[in-house]
Amino acid sequence: MGRVSLFGGVSEIGGNKILLEDKDTRLLLDFGMSISTRSKYFSDPYVSPRRKESLLELGIIPRIPGIYSWETKASVDAIILSHAHLDHYGYLSMLNRGIPVHCGETTRVIMGAITETRRSAMETDYRGITYKTFRSGSKIRVGSISITPVHVDHSIPGAYGLILETSDGRMVYTGDLRAHGRAASLTADFVKAASSDSTDLLLNEATNMVGGIVSSEEEVSGKLLKVIERAPGLVMASFSTMDTDRLLSFYNASRDSGRTLVLSLRQAFFLTKLSKEKSLGLPDLDDESIAVYRREKKRFEHWEEDVSSHATVLSSSDLARSQKRYVLAASLSDMEGMIGVKPEGGSVYVLSSSEPFNEEMELDMQRLIGWLDYYGLPLYHIHVSGHIMPQELRELVTSINAEKTVPIHTEHPELFAKFSGLGSERVKVPNVAEPIEIR
Ligand SMILES: [Zn+2]
To answer: What CATH code is carried by the domain that includes residue 234?
Structure first.
């Protein structure tokens, strides 16, 4: 009998860890970090977990026999990784290296860059993983299950939804997706492929079920240009390293206003890897509107030296001297370093990521505001979510029209039956580790 059990992403945003069992075949779909559960007990860098036993004991990683690196025999045939966001890949670090990880080509590139730039603590050591890559529409056979990944648009390139045929029925897993990014047509392709046959079970992300905004990445791009053009001083901005859509929006707005976009060393390193993927349309690191900020420190990692040797490198004093020529990527952790730059009057800060949605982020936000007040910088919030909006979500589940839909990656799965319009007989509200039959 085919069934799925959810060990994360249940009544929480992210942390997806899905076990799919069909006859003798066992698959894991994503194995992400439940950031909210983890932050109940831990706060980096000083209160970090040091023992795998504590992660198991606290339920941060599930007790599934035969999946972890310290066990000799693997009980799972393969892992399918939908995309390279921490809440989907995070605890691959702990898994048995004998289990292959299937993912998109771009996801593999990103995982490689993460592996190279992260210090390998217990939770963040991704060395030794065997990746097998796919493209949209590939057919992968693992035991009795056939998997068709189809590309979707999300706030990271290389994201996929999955169509899975088991001996017991057809299942669709959306991963994370949206319909308002630059590549919205990718999501349309997925919905079309997922809707073409009858589906028994749909696992659907519902992050933005209860509230939406009408916007798009294009609109974000336009707003950035407006703010950057008018600023007589330095523009500082925080945005996700791996959100290449947003990187492109910042690049376009910087170039169109005659400025240079100044990246962190880590962002620049990711750019060198991702700009090789021509379909993403990213500039190269040696583009004349791109530079890299190298803040003063004693020791540089090998990859940091490598990036520095291939880019236009700027120091704090370079930035301080001609502030209105730059848009500088700077997050909370960079604020202390700005003492050396001394943003002049008219400088602004653009927050281009989601609003804080938990206590930890709220505290960081307060600290960021503390720094902005100190430097006298107004805060502009310019962002659009990586997740599908309520009306498009409703259209998506209506189109796929599964016998049974399970809302995941949301804090309010119990509201989904009403909000989606599917009704309670067609919606299954999940519980952690409780198997759900495919048919
Ligand atoms: Zn995601």
So the answer is: 3.40.50.10710
SS3 call for 103: strand
Helix (H) or strand (E) holding 328: strand 326-329
How many angstroms separate the alpha carbon of residue 75 from the centre of ligand 1?
27
CA of 374 to the centre of ligand 1 (A): 33
CA of 154 to the centre of ligand 1 (A): 7
Residues 195 and 298 in one domain: no
Q: Determine contact, residues 353/364, Cβ cutoff 8 Å.
A: no
Distance (Å) from CA 399 to ligand 1 centroid? 22
Q: Which domain holds residue 377?
A: 217-381
CB atoms within 10 A of CB 277: 15
CB 311 within 8 A of CB 290: yes
Contact 393, 209 (CB under 8 A): yes
Q: What is the mean pLDDT of residues 128-132?
A: 97
For the stretch 30-65, pLDDT in tens is 999 998 889 889 988 788 898 999 999 999 999 999
What is the spatial distance between Cα 398 and Cα 83, in angstroms, rounded to a whole number? Answer: 24
Same domain, 187 and 63: yes
